[in-house]
Design brief:
heterodimer; A: alpha/beta; VC0802-like; 2 domains; 6-stranded mixed β-sheet; elongated; B: Aspartate Aminotransferase, domain 1; 3-stranded antiparallel β-sheet; 12 helices; 12 strands
């Protein structure tokens, strides 16, 4: 018998030929993220992954391991339990009882046993195993009752290559595991929204690279560090992120010199999209992602989004938060633990020169016309992109 | 690199480094151990203590070592108010003290003390005759900082101390001397407790000391072994203490020379900016330590100027580094003149700086400021 963590994953099963590759990626991410916690081994077992201590003497630190694995995208649930090499019904009964007693003591509660039998050669049917094991526990523990419809406790028995017993199911974020072939580039500020947009996209299997616009001396290295920390936090879910840091000061000051104050943010955002698109095309991204939520600030009215979006000519811009309320975004940010990083007080470049009364309904045609008259803008953008550096977190 | 952030912390001087190294590698024994190896370590720390004591005009048994200025201030405020609680309920400080005193006084208020803040004028000086009226039989404790960490303003602790003792000899007077230690001489005649920190005078971080005048009762805040007379138990930070001793010896040996040098650096920077419009000195020019020059630049965010200077390898500070993470504006200047708080940069010096650096810094500021003023919120 050995302590294990069973890992369930969802939508992969549907994905035909890609399945093996996606499973391998997911196993790799699990192994990578578990590495700092100790010597854990992750193996495949008929539609599940099984995590165990490689060394039999080590103690399985369930709390920490569950926290890491349940956070990995594509994992629908994790179940702490035991694995039996001896799959005889006698052993299953005995171990199921032991598991029951260790986890639930002798309280007055209702329970049932549920069996999944993917090893069809096993001499008993699922129903037979459930009633056999259930009867054995019922006899051995005082004060408990069977309730097959609405039990307090469900003891799960899974008969696969080995047998597994567990009773707790801890939900993961689900979604799809990251697929290396589908990449998008996220425009990331230090704010609350963009990391959530990145997370929600990653949750649909999109591999994320991120772009940050650095405006020293108007933004500080601490603001940059904040974004690096946000990227690191996001990488917990994805297994790794490449963060591009675009030197944006020159572009920003140039735009300041050339456009009316109330329209400035729109031009800044267009310039950012242009930079990001160039980087995205180089790194093989198929889309850009922003944290825009319609109507949240002046540059996120539908008119503003319309006026900004045309800056990007070759790639679609995904806005996964477009219809979300601020509170829902904040809730997500708290859930994925980016919130506390996002609220660190360092200013990012969007807010430095923001006009006192920004225009809320910019017209796309006018914006484009003014932009065409800004001298050297394309050159400055090319220059910035060319000297952009990246870090892998 | 031009390091003008010495009020935040300083580089470790050679003497301090050697002293710490010796304690880390050769005399690493626990000074409380009975063997002679332990005794050697004890002797070294006692030697450091003697140096510090004689530098400030105290005797060695009037000193305890702490983890730094914050702990020294906490020990003074809580150690005294707990010991003398029965004698009265009033405590007095200034609204412009360091957070490690102000926050303690907030705690005292929650614990039922009558916390009073002495009034100050628009430059930050204590208004002495109004302060005098506040001292009565019920005042058990007064805490006033010698050199203000944000603006360098010096309070006259001799005058304040004498006044306190004349009106109520039983009132305990604490001076937070973290920014003055090793830089300005201070008479301990009317002072009952004084906080010091090593890393502001080229010692190591993590070590400070509290002077406690003989006969002053103090309740200890932490409990453990018998080290430091049980007032501050815990194995002594011997490398930190010996580094502090060495740094202290250097500082007091050269105290006048250093002060002159720093004054020249400060004046060079100040004079170099005279041609620039919209620059204000925070604090009282007559009454300030040359180690700190706090300037407000009209129409500029202090933080942006700081980061601009950083691009030229010049390191300064907005407000005090201690409260930076809380994104508090410079609280002292906030108190004195709200309109300036956001646009303040603090330059703080040490004898390692020179006038060429100050001159270069002034030149850069004169170049940067007009550009920054051009790009403002519209």
């Amino acid at each position: 018998m050995k302590d294990v963590l069973l890992v369930k994953y969802g939508e992969i099963a549907m994905r035909g030929k890609n399945r093996l590759m996606i499973e391998n990626n997911l196993i790799k991410t699990i192994a990578k993220n578990l590495k700092p916690l100790g010597d854990y081994l992750t193996t495949r077992e008929q539609g599940r992954f099984v995590i165990e201590c490689r060394n039999d003497k080590d103690i399985f630190d369930y709390d920490r391991v569950i926290d890491v694995v349940a956070n990995i995208l594509g994992v629908t649930a994790v179940c702490p339990g035991i694995r039996l090499e001896d799959c005889s019904i006698e052993n299953i009964r005995k171990m199921a009882l032991k598991h029951f007693k260790e986890n639930f003591g002798e309280k007055n509660l209702t329970f049932k046993v549920e069996t999944k039998r993917s090893n069809k050669k096993y001499p008993m049917t699922s129903w037979q195993i459930s009633s056999d094991v259930g009867g054995y526990i019922l006899n051995a523990v005082d004060g408990i009752k069977v309730d097959v419809h609405n039990p307090d406790v469900t003891i799960m028995v899974e008969i696969r290559n080995y047998s597994y017993i567990y009773s707790k199911i801890i939900k993961g974020f689900g979604g799809l595991p990251i697929e290396a072939s589908a990449k998008a580039t996220l425009l990331m500020s230090g704010g609350i929204d963009s990391p959530v947009a990145g997370f929600l996209s990653a949750k649909r299997g999109i591999e994320i690279d991120a772009v940050y616009f650095n405006s020293p001396p108007y933004t500080s290295d601490r603001a940059k560090q904040k974004v690096i920390d946000l990227a690191k936090r996001l990488s917990v879910f994805t297994g790794g992120i490449r963060l591009y840091i675009v030197p944006f000061t020159e572009i920003q000051l140039h735009i300041y010199d050339c456009v009316p104050p109330e329209k400035m943010t729109v031009f800044l955002k267009r310039a950012m999209l242009k930079c990001a698109e160039k980087i995205a095309l180089k790194n093989g991204s198929l889309a850009l992602i922003t944290g825009d939520s319609v109507g949240q600030v002046a540059s996120q009215t539908l008119q503003a989004i319309n006026a900004i979006d045309s800056a990007c000519s070759q790639l679609p811009v995904l806005r996964p938060l477009c219809a979300m309320d601020k509170q829902d975004i904040v809730d997500w940010a708290r859930k994925i633990k980016t919130y506390d990083i996002s609220i660190r007080p360092y200013e990012d470049c969007c807010t430095v020169f923001v006009a006192k009364h920004p225009e809320t309904k910019p017209k796309r045609a006018i914006i484009e016309k003014i932009e065409a008259q800004i001298p050297n803008l394309e050159e400055l953008i090319d220059k910035a992109v060319n000297i952009t550096e990246f870090i892998d977190v | 690199m031009i390091y003008f952030d010495n009020a935040s912390t300083t580089s470790v001087c050679d003497a301090a480094y050697e002293a710490a190294k010796l304690m880390l590698t050769k005399y690493y024994a626990n000074p409380s151990s009975l063997h002679n190896f332990g005794l050697e370590a004890e002797n070294k720390t006692e030697e450091a203590k003697s140096i510090i004591a004689s530098s400030i005009g105290a005797s060695p048994d009037e000193l305890i070592f702490t983890s730094g200025g914050t702990e020294a201030n906490n020990t003074a405020v809580f150690g005294i108010t707990q010991a003398y609680r029965r004698k009265g309920n009033k405590v007095i400080t200034l609204p412009t003290e360091h957070p490690s005193v102000l926050e303690c006084f907030k705690q005292l208020k929650e614990r039922g003390f009558d916390v009073l803040y002495a009034p100050i004028d628009d430059k930050g000086n204590i208004i002495i005759n109004e302060f005098e009226k506040m001292i009565d039989d019920d005042v058990i404790f007064v805490s006033i900082m010698s050199v203000n960490n944000e603006i360098g303003l010096i309070q006259n602790t001799d005058k304040i101390g004498k006044l306190i003792k004349d009106k109520n000899p039983e009132t305990i007077f604490h001076v937070d001397n973290v920014q003055g230690f090793g830089k300005h001489r201070l008479c301990l005649k009317y002072i009952d407790l004084m906080s010091m920190s090593a890393h502001k005078i080229h010692g190591a971080k993590g070590c400070g000391a509290l002077y406690i005048k003989k006969g002053t009762k103090l309740k200890s805040l932490i409990f453990g072994g018998h080290q430091q007379g049980s007032v501050r138990p815990g194995t002594e930070n011997t490398p930190g203490i010996c580094a502090m001793g060495a740094a202290c010896r250097e500082a007091y040996k050269n105290i006048d020379e250093n002060l002159n040098k720093v004054k020249q650096v400060r004046d060079t920077l100040y004079d170099g900016l005279l041609g620039l419009d919209g620059v204000f000195v925070n604090g009282d020019n007559k009454n300030s330590s040359p180690y700190i020059l706090s300037l407000s630049f009209k129409g500029i965010k202090g933080e942006v100027l700081l980061h601009s200077l950083e691009q030229y390898g010049i390191y300064a500070s907005t407000g005090s580094a201690c409260s930076l993470k809380a994104k508090k504006r410079s609280s002292v200047i906030d108190f004195l003149d709200k309109s300036r708080a956001d646009s303040t940069v603090r330059f703080s010096f040490s004898a390692e700086n020179n006038t060429e650096q100050a001159d270069y810094c002034a030149q850069q500021i004169k170049k940067i400021v007009p550009v920054l003023r051009q790009y403002k919120r519209r």
